[in-house]
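Subject: for your reference before the review

Hello V.,

The reviewers asked for a structural picture of the protein, and I figured it would be easier to keep everything in one thread rather than splitting it across files. Below is the amino acid sequence we used in the manuscript, unchanged from the supplementary table.
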Amino acid sequence: MGVIVPAGVLNSQPLENAVALMSLTEAIATGGKLPPKAIRLAIEINGSETDADLLHLSKLNPVMIFNDPAKNLSHLHASRRLFEFLKREGLKIPVIHHFRSSVVDDSNELSLQVKMIE
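And here is what came back from the structure prediction:
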């Protein structure tokens, strides 16, 4: 088991068995080279990547994808595009949806906020 840590932090502060988190752009630029002591790679997708960029996922072999669409993009459409790409390419990479919310004490309000990103 490893802790997920941004690759930049791991470069300056190596951590045994860490999972390095990189944006897809960063992973492409570095060829997916892991920082010292990191054992796996996790990729962050923001929805602005081209299909040509996404094709690198198969070579990078990430343990998971963090789907964190940019604020100017529809979370639903960016997510659908990512899942359609993964299916079309036959890539079976787990995807974690990143959701940011203001502090909410009411579970009904939180449900509404989550529903609004769809």
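For the response letter, the relevant points are probably these. The chain has six helices and five strands. The beta strands are 4-6, 18-23, 38-45, 64-67, 95-97.

Happy to draft the paragraph if you're swamped.

O.
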